[in-house]
Amino acid sequence: MSPSEAGALARSPGAGPDKAGPGADRSSRLWRGTGEQALLAFLVLFVGLIAVLPLARLLWEAIAPGGTPSLATIEEVLARRSTWRATWHSIEVSLGGTIISLLLGSFFAFLVALTDIRGKAALVFCFMLPMMIPPQVTALSWIQVFGPSSSLLNMLGLAPPLGTPHPLYSREGIILLLGIQHAPLVFLALRAGLRAMPKEMVEAARASGASGRQVFQTIVLPLMMPSLVAGTALAFVSAVGNFGIPAMLGIPARYSVLPTLIYQRLSDFGPDIISQIAVLSVLVSVIAAAGFGLQAWLLRRRDYRTIGAPSQPLFYELGSRRRLVEALCWLIIVFILVLPLAALLAASLVKAYGLSLSPETFTLRHYADAVLSHDATARGFVNSFMLAGATAVLLIALAVPLAYFIVWRRTVLLRVLNGLAELPYALPGAVLAIAAILVFLKPIPLLGVSLYGTLWIIFAAYLARFLTLGLRPVISGFYQLDRTLEEAGQMAGAGFFRRLATIVLPLTAPVAAAGGLLVFLTAFNEIQVSALLTSSGAETIGVIIFFLDESGSSSMASAVAVMVVAVVLGLMLLAGSLAKRLPRGVLPWEA
């Protein structure tokens, strides 16, 4: 759209001021300004209600149960051995998983960004897939790999004897899977840093005679410390709030972390102990905040600012070692992705759990039962599609005007608003779930309707949780837009809402669609929030997989998990088809 086209749109009948007198022109401008302010006020109110109010209510419940300030509940919760045991377990598995994430993520990021290995697009896609798969599916797939009941190992004749303890039902198993699940976070942070690194310092070092190894050790690695620290902090905080993996592997082993302790307490006692649950949730937040605090402290110790245009800083030719490095990379992909998914598929295709997959034991009955006979599973798919779809549509509808104000109407209020929008996503899901319960447990004032125990409370929590996922790609798109067209429309007399609909929205549609797909994909797989908010009739598919495995229906759980992986894969491929029309970095699995 050119400036002349924008002017033509503005001068269509009823669009511009040249059809009316001066009085009408002043009224039109007043209405436009009032409409723009009303929309901004609505967006501020929306973010405040979904992001600030629940978390403020959680904190108040922890320090003032029942509305009366008291330390009795805090003292009672902190006096229990189970609290400190779960706290220590959360810290140790999160630290262990973060170390694995750091090693895996940095290994792949440096290879993809700095070397001439082939097949980078496929390698990045496969490496990112474990992060996009729900954590409970990741855990279930790995459960099916090892142990005497593994259909895959039984088919290969490698299964251990019956009665052998499953190696993943342990602290070490949780650490391994947390590390694999969150390694892509380190990869993304480090790759972004490498892409933004200027080339001037590298060229100066090379001109001084430094070798490629010396440049990497003395320039690249020190400059990448902020990205490494940021990725490590994200991996740690995500591990602290992860529910699916510790629930699937830790509950059978009686190894509780804080999110699973909250879930078990809430399941056993219900909302009657909500004040105690609030204290545990605040404790989870404190651990997560400690991770971000350590990140900030480490980055303050040195100045990492650079000058220069972003570019490809280095390019190492691996030469004769390239095939060996490529083989190692794909061997890791086979271990962390192909093997678990193959075991999951095998477990879903046998007549009974633990049988070896063969023509005699092959069956599709579990898939048919999951879709046609098991009401809860079918309901879980419908609920997840409805919740994810509604969340994606509403958030993208709000993200476009919100990003417009944040990027093109820069004020302190809008910067604060942007930070508040990210808060529910940065905190562990269990914290947000308990906050939602506190806000919606009682009937809504004036309406007299309670959302607790319905899909609506999950929907409200999803809006808060995934707002920033839909907002970030759109903000990125706005930063890369030339505002000339929008200004031309304004000069031609087009009002704010007309410019938004006819100029801004068409230009941002690709990034908005990508953000919507990311929101849908993440919400469809969500379990951290919905596990604590689900109720009979309001189950999501992630919770159904957990319930099926917990009740002993492992084959059906595997079938449902395979269908979920197929949906995830299809959505990622669909989003990938938009890659050429999107700013670089919007899709996390883009090479």
- Assign the CATH class of the largest domain: Mainly Alpha
Distance between the termini: 30 Å
How many strands, which pairing sense, and closed or not: the largest β-sheet?
Answer: none
Helix share of residues?
A: over 70%
Radius of gyration: 26 Å
> What would CATH call the homologous superfamily of the largest domain?
MetI-like
CATH topology of the largest domain: MetI-like fold
Number of domains: 2
Whole-number average pLDDT?
81
What portion of residues belong to β-strands? Answer: under 5%
The CATH architecture name of the largest domain reads Orthogonal Bundle
Provide the succession of SSEs: HHHHHHHHHHHHHHHHHHHHHHHHH
- Determine the structural class based on helices, strands and strand pairing: mainly alpha
Quaternary organisation of the protein chains: single chain
Give a count of the beta strands, DSSP E runs of length 2 or more.
Answer: 0
Poorly predicted spans: 1-31
Inertia-based shape: globular
Summarize this structure as a short list of keywords or feature phrases.
591 residues; 2 domains; globular; MetI-like fold; mainly alpha; disordered N terminus
Structure description:
There is one protein chain. 45% of the residues are buried. The chain is mainly alpha-helical. The protein is built from 25 helices and no strands. It folds into 2 domains: 1-7 and 20-70 and 364-591, MetI-like (MetI-like fold, Orthogonal Bundle); 82-363, MetI-like (MetI-like fold, Orthogonal Bundle), CATH 1.10.3720. It is globular.
